[in-house]
Amino acid sequence: MLGACIVQSSRTAGFAGEFVKVNKIMETFLASVHKKKSEGEDVKSIEFSQFLIVLTLFGVVLAHPKVHFVPKATLKLLSKLVFALFLPCLIFTQLGPSISVKNIIQWWFIPVNVIISTAIGCILSCLVAFKCPPPREFVRFTIIMTALILATLAIFYWQ
Q1: Is the pTM of this model over 0.85?
Q2: Can you say how many angstroms the Cα of residue 80 is from the centroid of all Cα atoms in its chain?
Q3: What are the mean pLDDT values of the chain's consecutive 10-residue runs (159 residues total)?
Q4: Helix extents (H) in the chain
Q5: Membrane spanning segments where (predicted)?
Q6: Where are the domains of the chain?
Q7: Rounded distance, CA 151 to CA 113, Å?
Q8: CA pair distance 132, 124, nearest whole angstrom
Q9: How far is CA 79 from the centre of its chain?
Q10: Contacts with 126 (C-beta within 8 Å, 6 or more apart), sequence order
């Protein structure tokens, strides 16, 4: 029944009419789920999932080359902004409250392990780069990637 309603809503003319029909379908679906569940946690997760799906579809439509609502240069700039500014801010705001002096003392081995593993990885990757020399423009890349791979393997090994 839900699939038939979505197909019917895709035939309606105009984006606004389509959005209203999909919204009504989701409200009906959520109401039926809410009747079945008394806790309400599942309904909240479904509402959040619905919000993410609609937001993603809206972004896909805006970024599609045929629609050309947002220029390609602006998308590049927004992508850099998201990964350089918004994602670190989100990580720190979500993890910040859980960091305390007690937790840092309790988890001392994690940063020490990362530093030691990265240092050993750097030394080994320098040996690899000098023993099997890559092209000149890839020497730093080879050293960094080998160090990161070895550090990552060491971190997973010790866990």
Answers
A1: no
A2: 14
A3: 41 48 66 58 73 88 84 88 89 84 84 82 84 87 83 71
A4: 2-11, 15-36, 41-63, 72-81, 87-95, 101-106, 109-131, 139-158
A5: 48-65, 77-95, 107-130, 137-158
A6: 1-68, 70-99, 101-158
A7: 9
A8: 12
A9: 12
A10: 143
